[in-house]
Structure prediction request, 309 residues.
Amino acid sequence: MKIGDAIRRIERSARLDPVAAFARSLIRRVPPGRAADTLHGVDLGHPMHPLLVQVPIGAWMSATVLDLFPGTRRPALGLIDLGVAAALPAMAAGALDFAEQHPRQQRVGMVHAVSAKCGVLLYAASAVARHRGRQGWGKALGFAGMGMVGVAGMLGAHIAYSLNGGVSHTEQDRDLLPEGWHDLGPLDDFAEDTPVRRVVGGVPVVVVRSDQDVRVLTEACSHLGGPLSDGTVAEGCITCPWHGSTFRMADGSVVHGPATSPQTVLETLVVDGVVSVRRPDHGSAPHHGTEIPHPRAAETMPTGPTGLA
Ligand code: FES
Prediction:
């Protein structure tokens, strides 16, 4: 059996769901806010967990290599201590991400987390043994820990690459948007601060009219593809109904996680009371060719994201 097929059996194992639900309920007691956003990676614009795990994995991998050579007792012990300490924030960030994922991701995530925690415990035991001068036990526990960390890493990669955990679920929409201006309908069809779903060349977008402004963003939330047109609008931001990610409508940037990638904001123009949009990077890629003017306002194009004419 292929490794991927074995992991997909974990994805389908609903027996893990009660445990996942319990873990999720505990983790969600962490209040949303600055600390949670930082651990998700909102400040970086990149998931934090895969960055944080580099430190313990790198330290432990280096200690494993040092263990193969004589006279390396002290540096190997220092690296193992460093790895155990650095694993704590990495686990915290991973737990917060886990709590806002879909069931198949969480099933694999449960096994990933158990493997990782076993690895941490084995390395902690290795450190204790080494501090007590039991070098042989320390090395054996360290090698076992490396094995568990390897399993955890493989499962984490499966969540990221096969189950799309942590990737942007809207990034491809930007490239799929067709060239040129596209009418979305009369401005009067859009009530104030009420998100409305429209489709541009097969790509769903969400339209929000506020005062004299119209903002149009890609509809699928970058976190897990939630429908932003079912979300709520307040203070220039739109909040996803699934896990509460909040995006600034002016530029698509993430205000609150768990999302870490921005939404694409389309260029908007209102001509003769009709809302039109086009992709934000029109004409910038080689295959885009020359700029296609708006059919009803060919003389002057606005440079901002929204133009009222
Ligand atoms: S899909 Fe999770 S916050 Fe939008």
